[in-house]
UniProtKB/TrEMBL annotation:
One GO MF term: hydrolase activity
SUPFAM superfamilies named in the record: alpha/beta-Hydrolases (SSF53474)
Protein name (Swiss-Prot/TrEMBL): Alpha/beta fold hydrolase
Organism: Pseudomonas helleri
InterPro entries per record: AB_hydrolase_fold, RBBP9/YdeN
Keyword list, A-Z: Hydrolase
Origin superkingdom: Bacteria
Amino acid sequence: MTVRVLILPGLFNSGAEHWQSHWEQRYSGLHRVKQENWETPACTDWVNNLQKKISKSERPVVLVGHSLACALIARWAQEYPAQAKRVRGALLVAPSDTEASSYPAGTTGFTPMPLNALPFDAITVASTNDPYVSRERATAFSEAWGSELVWLENAGHINAEGGVGAWPEGIELLFKLTGDPQFKHS
């Protein structure tokens, strides 16, 4: 049985040049979770929306989160442990430290950062020069979540501004979680 891949953008959504958008255009079966409020989100609303999407899926789910969506995934797994069994894995890219002074104002309920172990396989991808998370905090998040940690050198916030483009290396990581041959680069 194939999995359902849910794309979870962070604060302000992911624009046309973001790797999440590139992936949606290139690969079938990826579904962006649309939130009602991208600029000043409330964690409760985002968690409830994610819960609805996962509960509607007839297939196992793989979550692909960027930035604030990493905190969303960890919070959702903490609040819905029974539903978390439906998740095969999560790709947690550029987790933002919502407790850091560098984090943009306007979000509600995303602190403290959830640090419970995730009940599914996960890969955290962090950049050595991300303005929204220190190397130490990214490492601490990955360890707490029980995820594999992959470092990218000088990729900023691992978005369009960081120059990752369609990010084929990320697709390889997604393949590790899904086993779906459409994500296997030759």
